[in-house]
Amino acid sequence: MGGAEYVDYALKSNETANENVNSLVDRIHEASDASNQKVTNGLMGAKDSRIITNEQNVAMLSDFIEKLPYTKLGSGPSAAAYDFIVNPSTLGDE
After folding, report:
1. CB count in 10 Å sphere of residue 61
2. Which of 1, 55, 56, 64 is the most exposed place for a label (fewest CB within 10 A)?
């Protein structure tokens, strides 16, 4: 291989290497963008799920929640109900 051929070979090798690096960088950016979009979609799904679950919990427990503040007031049975709600595992031991 002569001097001119060597220079030609080196230039082509360098050009190919630069093209490969540029292609790799482009693919990394594409993968990063796709990954970021999947994370965003996943978080939005989790947020939507949490909102729906919260709404369902509020609907199921609303009647109970409205009565809870009044269970400690008044009669002995109400106080016992309050104590059970606060600490249900020890009521059976007493």
Report:
1. 11
2. 1
Express each pLDDT in 8-44 by its tens digit: 999 999 999 999 999 999 999 999 999 999 999 999 9
Query: What one-character-per-residue DSSP string does 54-90 give?
Result: HHHHHHHHHHHHHHGGGSSSSSHHHHHHHHHHH-HHH
CA–CA separation, 84 vs 9, rounded Å?
85
Distance, CA of 7 to CA of 5 (rounded, Å): 5
- For the chain, the domains span 3-91
